[in-house]
Amino acid sequence: MTLEERKQEVIEEFSLYDEWLDKYEYLIELGKSLEAFPEEKKTEDRLIKGCQSRVWLDAEERDGRLFFTADSDAIITKGIISLLISVYSGRTREEIAADDFAFVAEIGLKENLSPTRANGLVSMINTIKKLAENGR
Amino acid sequence: MTLEERKQEVIEEFSLYDEWLDKYEYLIELGKSLEAFPEEKKTEDRLIKGCQSRVWLDAEERDGRLFFTADSDAIITKGIISLLISVYSGRTREEIAADDFAFVAEIGLKENLSPTRANGLVSMINTIKKLAENGR
Amino acid sequence: MSLTQIRSQFPILDTQVYGKPLVYLDNAASAQRPQAVVDCWKGLVEGSNANIHRAVHHLAAQATDAYEGARDRVKSFLNAEAREEIVFTSGATASMNLVAFSYGQVFVNQGDEIIVSVGEHHSNIVPWQMLCERKGAMLRVLETEENGLLSPAKLQGLLSERTRIVAITHISNVLGLVNPVKELVSVCHEAGVPVLVDGAQGVVHEKVDVQDLDCDFYAFSGHKIYAATGTGVLYGKRKWLDAMPPYMGGGEMIETVRFSGTTYAPLPMKFEAGTQNFNAVPTLVPALDFAQAVREEKAVADEQEAILAYVYDALMQDERITLYGTAREAKVPLFSFAVKGVHHEDLALILDKMGIAVRSGQMCAEPLMDHLGVTGLLRASFAPYNTLEEAKYFIASLNKAINMLI
Amino acid sequence: MSLTQIRSQFPILDTQVYGKPLVYLDNAASAQRPQAVVDCWKGLVEGSNANIHRAVHHLAAQATDAYEGARDRVKSFLNAEAREEIVFTSGATASMNLVAFSYGQVFVNQGDEIIVSVGEHHSNIVPWQMLCERKGAMLRVLETEENGLLSPAKLQGLLSERTRIVAITHISNVLGLVNPVKELVSVCHEAGVPVLVDGAQGVVHEKVDVQDLDCDFYAFSGHKIYAATGTGVLYGKRKWLDAMPPYMGGGEMIETVRFSGTTYAPLPMKFEAGTQNFNAVPTLVPALDFAQAVREEKAVADEQEAILAYVYDALMQDERITLYGTAREAKVPLFSFAVKGVHHEDLALILDKMGIAVRSGQMCAEPLMDHLGVTGLLRASFAPYNTLEEAKYFIASLNKAINMLI
Ligand SMILES: Cc1ncc(COP(=O)(O)O)c(C=O)c1O
Ligand SMILES: Cc1ncc(COP(=O)(O)O)c(C=O)c1O
User: Are C111 and C139 within one domain?
Assistant: First the structure.
């Protein structure tokens, strides 16, 4: 699936949920299903600044593509980072760097997750971009 | 004239003036007609604190009665202190100390002369009272 | 005043969030403002708007009267001895910084000690840390008892020859307990040590009489007690305020400004540098009137007591929940708690979507969080306009949210 | 926008005082607030009232957006490079105290020098005097030229190896002249000395571009530029703000609070201790929008120019009157003057009774008064909602008042 297709898919998935609580149920599920993140990787340099809850993000490059892993101590945040990962993992640096991350607003996350949380989201996005641009 | 009669007289004089500007004309006249206050008496201890313009007040006791002299660098203030003097000069300490100075409000000075100026007025009244109670 | 009448004074309570009626339980962060406060502010701005104190024109006179009238109201509200002991600031934080700087400037030297409790808000810790750093003084920390209260005996044990001031909270914004301030002050005064009381929460829940408490300083914010934001109060005993240098310079806090030397104005002007918040400070009058009126209203007291009992019991009985600040006899309806295995922020986010505004996180009391061994808590804080019904909806919603997350 | 349309946004302008239409010419002390500012404040209080930044609930999000939106607006208004360079304070006085303390704490030591001009407002003198006293530094005073302006050449002559900062006003609140700030800054920067510009009046009358001026700090108050009281701005170049310790402690100006040591939040939070004035700060948006709109309006510019010309000429031509701040090319419609043989306060009192609000006294610039050899002055300061007709009424009334008093 191309990046565009995957984003479209996420937008459609979210459009199924009218109710905020259902969106959260979905994010919680996503969070719970996120692949385990090794404790020893929860280091300062992998911690994303600007989130109220703690979020760790790591990237590995394989065959010219970036693969992300992540964790958070809050489950909804974990669901959000999980969602981002599911979209951006396996893409090339160029693809990620060129993306505008606008789909996040389209699924209503940005507006509705409060400014602090939104800042967290912005921080997550910025970190993903930075990883794509510079590597760690 | 007793203190009460003199106060009544002042209230009646002021009631002649509907217009604030006329009251001020009258106060200016009073100020201009105030007996000269010797320059050498313009000392710190005769200066009334709490007035925006400078006001000096002095009291002398003769035959058990207090006689006030005063000056100010602003003419309306001078008119006001002149008015106060014309009411309280020649009274006994007891008379002054017992007075409530309420006639000042009745002629509209307190409310209309702004808080700072009103504070100045309050300071003048307090100084007159203190002079009556303690002497200088 | 019935609860309905009280609620009708707060139009915001009819707001819908995400299509649900707003249940505002973040009152400890900031209260809502009654219509009378809005009207007061609007009336001043539209009718009596001018800079205060010095000008002699009509609008300035009106504005000054409103401002100085607020000082009289605060004086009577706190039962201070004199109006000169009431200093207006921009908030409780500014009040405490003022004391830390100005008292510290004269009375705190190298090697001296300052005592704060572990349960203090950052605003009653950081200014003292900054002072200690400037002066080479040391901060001593009074721990809370198991039930969350401060103990006069323990405080006594911490006082030393070098203690220069004790800074403690009346009611912690996390624990929601009324500390025995009078006894704490008395213990300090026996040792000749003055006490600053952080009354940011205390003034909201308790009738405060500074002469009875005998505290040396009492600080609070307008916005937590229904007044406009940007307003704050510092009560200080005259003997201290007189002995302290100004905190900020400028405007009319002076007697004479000369390049050869400046002298300062008498109290309270000495501490009110620059143009004051003259549109907002007078809103303290309707705000404190409201606070006092509801406090004296039996219907309100009953509802508050019912809320307190209901929520306290519900939280204490739920085995998944750990409530902090459990001393029932000293409790006000302000509850901070952890839910086992669940992040406070997740709860806050879900409750928000149910229309409920609660606070999550460290609540500006990180040392207390560390002390309690948590990264943050969830807090629900009630005001006189909250109902038992809302409390029940909150508990039911909390239960639902926990179940979603476990 | 016609002048009538502008005036209609200020309901207070229809007030009658003593049965006379209000003519408000005390704008330099505080401006009036347009309807949009009242509506903004009211809308926030009644619809989006909650403490900002940390809470994750809906009202807090709205309140935070409004507050942080104001930061963006101020950034664009001043053309700052980054929003982190915009710090909110309670007013210009607080902004300047912040710099005097925090910059002074790191950069000013015993024997160092600070330069201020003789024409400064107390708020840009006293904080520096207090700093000098704490640090054993010295205040050097830059005198104004005969026409009231500050001269870059003269400033250059005053700079020394020990000069650590220069603090000067953009427009004096007494003299009403636009100082050549860009040139003054350039002279200082050549010597490696940073410059604080007191923009309390400047921001009202001039389009300010801090990157063009290249000043290091720029301070102003909301209430003088149509916003709610209790709001203030400090612009500071990031390199300075980053290097400065916080001024006040508490609330969310921290990264981590530990008794073993506290670390501070990044800009701008580091300087915003305690609950901010979240109901009022967002009023800067409609206020600055208004300021910008009227500035770009030709009808307003023409009327202001006509007022300036009319009043300037009238005052200069009257032999009984001495106007201070005469440099015509740098003049804004703010006039301070003395009348021979007449006390300024008498004039202000009489004008007040004619409906005219003017300021009398030292105007918080006592050193300048001493320098000019007067005990005080009368000041009339005009805003874009004032009319030429009002200016004419003022001059006629002044004449009448003088005649009453001579
Ligand atoms: C030139 C100047 N600087 C500083 C100030 C102080 O501003 P504020 O009193 O609003 O803090 C004023 C106004 O009073 C002023 O006119
Ligand atoms: C106990 C306590 N102290 C101090 C403060 C600080 O008050 P403010 O932020 O209004 O300055 C607060 C509120 O945040 C508080 O709850």
Answer: yes
* Cα D166–Cα D169–Cα D171 angle in degrees, nearest 5: 160
CA distance B20 to B18: 7
Token output for C136: 């080479």
The beta-carbon contacts of D294-301 under 8 Å, at least 24 apart in sequence, are D294/D1, D294/D6, D294/D384, D295/D207, D295/D384, D297/D1, D297/D6, D297/D384, D299/D1, D299/D2, D299/D3, D300/D1, D300/D3, D300/D6, D300/D384
Q: What is the pLDDT of residue A102?
A: 87
Residue after which a domain boundary falls, among D291, D320, D349: D291
Q: What are C314-356's pLDDT values in tens digits?
A: 999 999 999 999 999 999 999 999 999 999 999 999 999 999 9
H helix runs in D81-234, sequence order: 92-107, 126-135, 152-158, 181-190, 202-205, 210-213
pLDDT confidence band for A135 (50 / 70 / 90): low
Pairing outcome for strands C377-381 and D20-21: unpaired
Query: Which of C291, C307, C342 is the endpoint of a domain?
Result: C291
Same domain, C90 and C204: yes
At residue A130, what is the residue type? K
Task: State which residues form the domain around A15.
Answer: 3-134
CB contact under 8 A, A21 and C350: yes
Total number of domains in chain C: 2
Give the residue-averaged pLDDT of C248-267.
94
Chains near B with 3+ CB pairs less than 8 A apart are C, D
Mean pLDDT of C219-223: 98
Same domain? For D132 and D250 the reply is: yes
Q: What is the pLDDT of residue D97?
A: 98
Do D261 and D360 reside in the same domain of the chain?
no
Question: Helices (H), strands (E): how many in chain D?
Answer: 15, 17
What spacing in Å lies between the alpha carbon of C274 and ligand 1's midpoint? 7
Q: Residue C360 has which token pair?
A: 């999550």
Residue D26's domain is classified under what CATH number? 3.90.1150.10
Looking at the structure, do residues C251 and C385 belong to the same domain, yes or no?
no
* Residue type, position C396, single letter: A
**Any idea which residues of D carry the catalytic annotation?**
364
Whether residues D301 and D316 share a domain: the answer is yes
Task: Give kind and range of the element (H or E) at residue C293.
Answer: helix C284-295
CATH of the domain at A23: 3.90.1010.10
pLDDT for residue A115 is more than 60: no
**Which of the residues A34, A48, A51, A57 is marked catalytic?**
A51
Considering the domain architecture, whether residues C199 and C172 belong to the same structural domain is answered as: yes
| pLDDT value, residue A111 | 60
Output DSSP code: residue A108: T
Report percent pLDDT > 90 for chain C.
98
Q: What are phi and psi of C312, to 5 degrees?
A: -55, -50
- 334-363 of C, contacting A, C-beta below 8 A: 342-343, 345-346, 349-350, 352-354, 360-361
- pLDDT tier at A112, thresholds 50, 70, 90: low
Strand C217-221 with C232-236, pairing: antiparallel
Residue B86 has pLDDT above 70, yes or no: yes
Separation of CA C387 from chain center: 22
Q: Domain span at residue D391? A: 3-30+297-405
Chains near C with 3+ CB pairs less than 8 A apart are A, B, D
Sheet with C163-169, edge to edge strand ranges: C86-89, C232-236, C217-221, C195-198, C163-169, C113-117, C138-142
Q: Say if residue A118's pLDDT is above 90.
A: no
Summarised one tens digit per residue, pLDDT across range D258-269 is 999 999 999 999
Q: In chain D, which stretches have pLDDT less than 50?
A: none
- Burial label, D36 (beta-carbon count in 10 A; 0-12, 13-18, 19+): middle
Question: What pLDDT, on a 0 to 100 scale, did the predictor assign at position C110?
Answer: 98
C312 & C341 share domain: yes
CA distance C369 to C344: 13
Q: How many domains does chain A have?
A: 1
